[in-house]
Write a structure and sequence with these properties.
Elements (H helix, E strand, L loop, with lengths): L2 H35 L5 H20 L10 H21 L18 H40 L17
Length: 168
């Protein structure tokens, strides 16, 4: 594997881990607030928390410098889809929370405006995490395609036609 691809994969996995941890922390804080208030949390929030936890686990596992980590590129695309679904669910849910107020720059304020800013931050990092998983999967697929094509010896490889059939 090319060194540049390994370094890029390591950087993307680290960014996936960081963004997943941020989303897990922000959504976990909102789930704790709901529990303290005695309110049943939205299923969308629980789904986003589960996806964030899964992303943290998988990014930690795939951060290991093993050659098989590149061959799991379909898993990156599955995580991309899971993050896009979580992003869509949170985007659909956020306007119902009356978060159209202005800016609130007081980080110690526990009012609704700060609550909305935390949800918007979780939304942004969920989207960023989806993009990082997509880029990681594309990089791994491209690297595997490139290295498998370079290792094949053209003199011994038989050409096959459409759907792997032999040409006569």
């Amino acid at each position: 594997m090319p060194k540049v691809a390994r370094i890029a994969a390591l950087a993307l996995r680290t960014l996936e881990l960081i963004s997943g941890a941020i989303v897990a922390g922000l959504i976990g804080h909102e789930l704790r607030r709901a529990d303290k208030a005695g309110v049943r949390p939205a299923k969308r929030m629980i789904y986003a928390e589960v996806v964030a936890g899964l992303a943290i686990l998988l990014s930690l596992l795939l951060l290991l410098p093993m050659t098989w980590a590149f061959s799991l590129w379909p898993l990156d695309f599955v995580m991309f889809i899971l993050w896009i679904v979580a992003f869509g669910l949170l985007v659909d849910w956020l306007p119902n929370r009356s978060c159209s107020s202005g800016w609130n720059f007081n980080p110690w304020d526990d009012s609704g405006a700060n609550h909305c800013q935390q949800l918007k931050a979780a939304l942004a990092f969920a989207f960023l995490s989806a993009i990082f998983w997509l880029a990681s999967g594309a990089l791994a697929a491209w690297t595997l395609h490139r290295t498998r094509g370079a290792t094949a010896d053209p003199a011994t490889t038989k050409r096959r036609g459409f759907l792997g059939r032999r040409r006569v």
